[in-house]
Amino acid sequence: MPIKWYGLFLVIGLTIFVLSLLGKKGQSFFAHRVSNRQELLLNNLPLGLCLLSKTGKIIWANPLFPFLTGKKIVAGEDCPEFIHPSLLQDLGGKSLYFETRELLGAEEKLSLLTCQDLSEELRLYTKQKGYLPVIALAQIDNWAEVLKSMPEDVKPHLLGKMERTLREWVENLEGFLSRITEDRYLIILKQWGLQRAEKEHFNILDKIRNLEVGNGLPLTLSLGIGRGEEQIGKLGNLAQAALDIAQERGGDQVVAKSPEKVRFFGGKSLAMEKRTKVKARRTANALKEMILDSSQVLIMGHEMADYDSLGSALGVFKAVRDLGKKAWLIRDKHNPALDKILTLFPYEAGAYLVKAEEALRKMQEGTLVVVVDTHKPSLLPEPALLSAAAKVVLLDHHRRGEEFPEKAELIYLESYASSTCELVAELLQYMGEEVKIGPEEATALLAGITVDTKNFVYQTGARTFAAASYLRSKGADPTAVQKLFQDDLQTAIQKAEVISKARILYGEIAVSVGGEPSAEAQLLAAKAADAMLNIAGVNAAFVLWPFSTGVAISARSNGKINVQTIMEKLDGGGHLTIAAAQVPITLAEAEREFLNILEEVLQKSKEVRK
């Protein structure tokens, strides 16, 4: 049967859908309820529909049916003779396929005649009119946590209130909503409905978050949207992938995924801590098995590596060595943070450092590559190592972005964690007695946690302190950590100059730029942004610092402003309170682009609050 791209959704689903609209009223439904929203949905479906009585007379047709056939369709008249059920025919230059299905659920015997254009014209028509289908999956992020402390008799009321809010939003977009489980829903829209939701900045996120729960825990919603595909099965796969990304990024946001790109909306609230010790133990066991099955392990963090990237890499390095496997650390061309952290190690750790091009020559059969503190291949010293490796492991704590390695077999991406060092510290505890980290690795890991939490102030949960306690028991030295953070005189002067040039924008945002291009641009920008956040009245700080091939941008926030969404528009990423980006343009161009993006994001934020 030549049913093409609407077959699965529109032929199987329409019979059930039309029956649900008709009920036992038969043709009287269209005679008395012509203004109903659900009929509007039928009128706009990308498939010609004609409802026939048992005698073959026309009861109703949607606008596309006469458009496709090129014939006038009048209620009460006989069905045109040229229409033959279950027949593919050429009509008016179109390849039309007609099919008739009996609607057994109605009181009177009725038939639903469908007409499908198998030519390109319908595709153009539906795209122009915004009729292409869109599938979305909605998930309440913290349903179990909210219900845990709630009386049993209150739970049904909350479920009803939440579902009513979601249903009203979907109906306003003239879409269809169906509950899959207690906290997950299927939504079907048309393309123009999605466009309207985007214009309204997906205000459903705020509506769900503002529901009165009664126990102080706000409900948050994640939406994964599949769009831009003609096949319903592919749309569903896109929607599921988008929902996974939304949840990996901490929830309370919308991810719209098409075959070409991914778009993000929302993500205003801090992520709640959700990972469990069971998951950490399972990941640790899987990582251990992959290490033991490999011939050697290459460990790689992002370029311009900070202490979180370096500390987590050194932690994994020690585990690999203790398990009896050869390990190599990929290093940047120039990284003063690495030189500092290596002073902690009495053994010759530098002997296992290799440059990216050298690592490619060391590749052999069975090589495992472990990527830490980033999931963006473009930020790695040598992305080609991913495709050359037998297997890839990814350990990261940043909110997932559009760019992601396809080959990763083991992914431990937890945006609820303070740092990758926190994740690695947990994994080390479950890798068996063979793995015994010393005071050096413990101190390096503690340094990573300390720098990413700004001395345990931001993005800090109970698991963060538990990881720090474990590292302290293994000999981590807080004094040595503080020494790592000390600046030399030249750096202190540079930082002071940047702070002195700071401008306060919008009454709460500090922005400044660095001076001469520096190989330490990312580190210098981060330190200056940290210092600027301590200025009274400043809720977010941004520092742009040039380096040899572009500009490094560091962003810091006290939680009031989401700096991650701003950095993502510059192809960067991070967290609500800590984020960064690197752009391959001049300082003047970077500053101009950044200021335009900042204005755009703040303007949208004001519109949403209104």
Short description:
The protein is of the alpha/beta class and 610 residues long.
The CATH fourth-level homologous superfamily of the largest domain: inorganic pyrophosphatase (n-terminal core)
Number of strands: 23
- Uncertain segments are 1-13, 19-35, 86-91
Round the Cα radius of gyration to an integer and report it: 29 Å
Largest sheet: 6 strands, mixed
* Overall pLDDT score: 82
Please give the domain count. 4
CATH class of the largest domain: Alpha Beta
**CATH architectural designation of the largest domain:** Alpha-Beta Complex
How do the strands of the widest beta sheet line up side by side? 7-8-6-9-10-11
Helix content: 40-55%
Content of β-strand? 15-25%
How far apart the termini lie comes to 52 Å
Quickly give the structural class: alpha/beta
Q: Could you say what the CATH topology of the largest domain is called? A: inorganic pyrophosphatase (n-terminal core)
What general form does the structure show? elongated
Q: DSSP helix count?
A: 23
